[in-house]
Amino acid sequence: MSSMRVKICGITSVDDAIAVAHAGADALGLVFYAASPRAVSLDVARKISLAAGPFMSVTGLFVNADPEFVHSVLNQVPLQLLQFHGDEAEAYCESFKRPYMKAIRMRPGLEVSSAIAAYPSASGILLDAYRPGVPGGTGDTFDWARVPQGLSTPLVLAGGLTPTNVREAIAATRVYGVDVSGGVESAPGEKDHSKLTAFINNARRCMASA
User: Is 9 a catalytic residue?
Assistant: First the structure.
């Protein structure tokens, strides 16, 4: 069984980025969506990216962003992965010539495998909870039994994960990786370093005991 990959999203400070790296996360997320309480400026994002270290996958999260804005971010912030949380089509997602992960919100009645198949060029698919009008970061979970099995596309589980439930979530879904934001915070955009360390350790222990 391969190691569980862990991404900590919604990083807003250099201190939190360093804590995430020291705790052993594989990736951190920077939010470039003005309506989010975890949104960062380009200046802060660049400082975080440079502080994260050479082996950290720094991810930029966008929601139905104007392509010129995405390009302006890419020109100023070193990002290894793009993450799209809106209604972006595959052609849009792959137009930036970077690896990308497409978020799919698990709304009622969604045919999940078909939604995933619409993005064959994605490096991975993130499955997140659905709340009308909110593109992510809700803190809600969804029915993990809806996560499809046996697909070749790497799946990343998000939505309401915490240090307490991450082991159960991984055991139920057998996903490639997990993504957390609010579940390891003391306030929106402020990470609790003990919680994020516990989250990463619990996720990895689940795989070790599988």
Answer: yes
